[in-house]
Amino acid sequence: MAIPSFVDHVTLHLAAGRGGNGVASVHREKFKPLGGPDGGNGGQGGSIILEVDTSVTTLVDYHHNPKRRADNGGQGAGDHKNGGNGKDLVLAVPDGTVVKDRQGTVLADLVGHGTTLVVAQGGRGGLGNAALASSKRKAPGFALLGEPGDELDVRLELKVVADIGLVGFPSAGKSSLIAAISRARPKIADYPFTTLIPNLGVVTAGETTFTVADVPGLIEGAAEGRGLGHDFLRHIERCAALVHVVDTASIEPGRNPLDDLEIIEGELARYGGLEDRPRLVALNKVDVPDGQDIADMVVEELRSRGLQVFEVSAASGAGLRDLTFAMAEIVTASRADKPEVEPQRIVLRPPAVDGGADFEVLATDEGWRVRGTKPERWVRQTDFSNEEAVGFLADRLNRLGVELKLVEMGAQEGDTVLIGPDDNSVVFDFKPSIEAGAEMLGRRGEDERLREQRPARARRHDIDAAMETKAEEEARADVARRLDAERKKGPNRSSGSSGVGPMSYEIGSKDDPDWDGSDDD
Question: Most buried in the list 215, 322, 343, 358, measured by CB within 10 Å?
Answer without folding.
Answer: 215
